[in-house]
Amino acid sequence: MKKITFFISFLILTSVIVSCAIPTVLAVAESEDGLQPSIQEFKTIEPKEGNTGTEPIESPKTEKKLPLLEGLSENGECFSWNNALNVKSYMIRIVGIDRVNGIIFDQAFSSDPDSPYLFLPELNEGEYLLLVRAESRIPDYLDSDWAVMEYRIGVEDPDKVFVDCHKDWSGFYTIFESTEDTEGLEARYCLTCYKTHVIRNAALSSSDDPMVFTLKNDGEEYSVRAHLEYTEKPDEEIVIPAFHKGKPVTEIEPLGFYRMLKLKTVVIPNTISKIGDGAFAHCSSLTDICLEEGNSHYKVDGGCLIEIDTNEVVSGTIYCSIPNYITRIGAHAFSALNLSSIMIPNSIIEMGGAAFSGCKQLEKIIFEEGCQIEHISASLFSNCISLNDISLPNSILTIEEDAFGNCLEINSFVVPPYCNYIGEFAFAGWTSSQTVYIPLGSKAEADSKYAFCWDMVNRNCDGQGPNLVFLSKPKE
Length: 476
Known about the structure:
Blueprint: E1 38-41, E2 64-65, E3 73-74, E4 78-80, E5 87-98, E6 103-111, E7 117-119, E8 126-136, E9 141-142, E10 147-153, H1 158-164, E11 169-176, E12 184-190, E13 196-201, E14 203-204, E15 211-216, E16 221-226, E17 237-239, E18 243-244, E19 247-252, E20 265-268, E21 274-275, E22 288-291, E23 298-301, E24 304-307, E25 312-315, E26 328-329, E27 341-344, E28 350-351, E29 364-367, E30 375-376, E31 389-390, E32 398-399, E33 412-414, E34 421-422, E35 435-439, H2 443-446, H3 448-451, E36 467-471
């Protein structure tokens, strides 16, 4: 069990901490603010209705509030915090992702003022948030803000999982809405890894701003991403500011501007030193990436946004031409762009997952002579539904999962002679009107059962799929 604990910052007007021995009596009851113990299936993409604990509270004239609770800790059995003064009761909420059952777990509890702890209910593998606030017994004081810590059972840090998976989100579940003062939290379901992730949304800079910002590095700088509500609105140009509230904006988050379908131009300041994978993934209309002069980490060449130190294409545009010194194409770099053809130069040695996935107008892919790429990564060309012309170089050793899924316009495909691995569902969705030629006796032949399964969901490999022809010698 791996657990990582940290605090989400809230406004603290005063600070009172009183150490107290933990008693042995716990009261569990319905919360007074309407939070009902409940478990909900993870099906809807709409935010959860009802009180999330972050709605603005009408303040009395004094505008005084109990201090944020401190000392949050857990030992796998008990969630505890420092006792506080002037408390009528403690409200506790556990929200998270039950990965075993694939559901959102959301329950509320309360305990009396002399019981600053909660025995944890039985929880399955997943990521959870443990929240607690103090209810005031003083008429002129408001309840404290929610104090929060993370609690994980048998899963990795979600940030690491987030970076490694291909991040094709199918649903959202809002746990806490972002406000102008506090960050929000949401659960997302990924179609690539079939897992849920807890993602943080930054505090809103204003109610009508398409960008949200999150403090990082001990509050010295900001990262930026698009607000979810703006991703499908007709913003044809986004200008990322160099500074926000007097501090530099240094990072564009992974999938930061994902699926802004109308976006044509993005302007990036010279303060940006990190751009996450898929920052502009599925921005299908993107034509121009403008980089402010003086950026020492990135450059634009041939319509491609390039990381200088690694010669990696971070993002492409509709009119891009990959320069012949590029060594790597990043994950989701061209995904869903309205490309018609692309040339892969022989300087390329690696292409990240889903780099060209969803390019529905892409008809032709050309690998330059002498290309030494060895791996066709997972979902690399998946859902390129117009692709009809591709010949892989002989250097290819592996074709990963879902690499050519739903590429239904390819009439014939030749597996390279030295390919020794074909991943499951690499040719998912292919039909009997398509033919795949496989070197006889190769390891790729042994993989053919699941590689050509036409039904990924039900793992159905019978009765459908492409025609397989095993070759005793390489096909000319």
